[in-house]
Design goal:
Number of domains: 1
Strand order of the largest sheet: 1-3-4-5-6
Strand content: 25-35%
Order of helices and strands: HHEEEEEEEEEE
Distance between the termini: 100 Å
Length: about 170
């Protein structure tokens, strides 16, 4: 009877064969799912690093341009640091400040800094409190050190820090 089952093409798989096939399919499925999870993590990391770098680059460049054009620095005071920067541009002034983790800039009349335009996206936030540091040298114009620490979507594993200085001309 056993010999006739093996010769019969309509007969099914044995329990051993079925378990072996299921184990192979399970192992292959685990490998594919693992690769998918790894790929997704790499994609999120690449996207976060790109977003952080773009925000840092554009914010620092815009700040640097405004500092170079300024005639004087109103705040921070000499040797001081903080989250806001007020530049005297002659007849107007430019204010930059961090509000709720977003870097904002206001340009306009010499009155108070009111409405502001964001320089950074909502996907990133700035976490440090010593963003602008004023460095004054005797007989020279002021220099502003800019230090920005960005975090992506409130996830501490994705951070980016940049630091530069710009001087008045």
């Amino acid at each position: 009877m056993i010999a006739s089952k093996r010769n019969n093409p309509a007969a099914g798989f044995s329990l051993t064969e079925l378990v072996l096939y299921l184990a192979i399919i399970g192992a292959l499925t685990s490998v594919v799912i693992g690769m998918f999870v790894s790929f997704t993590r790499l994609q999120i990391k690449a996207e976060s690093q790109t977003e952080l770098a773009q925000n840092a680059r554009s914010a620092v460049e815009r700040l640097r341009q405004e500092i170079v054009k300024a005639q004087a620095v109103n705040t921070p005071s000499a040797g001081g640091s903080g989250v806001s920067l007020e530049l005297n541009m002659g007849a107007t002034k430019t204010c930059s400040e961090v509000i709720s983790g977003v870097l904002k800039m206001t340009e306009g009349a010499s009155g108070t800094c009111a409405a502001s335009d964001p320089l950074t996206s909502t996907k990133v936030s700035i976490t440090n409190s010593d963003i602008f540091t004023r460095i004054d040298n005797t007989g020279a114009k002021s220099t502003i050190q800019i230090k920005l620490t960005f975090i992506y979507n409130s996830r501490p594993e994705y951070t980016y820090t940049t630091q530069t200085t710009a001087g008045l001309r």
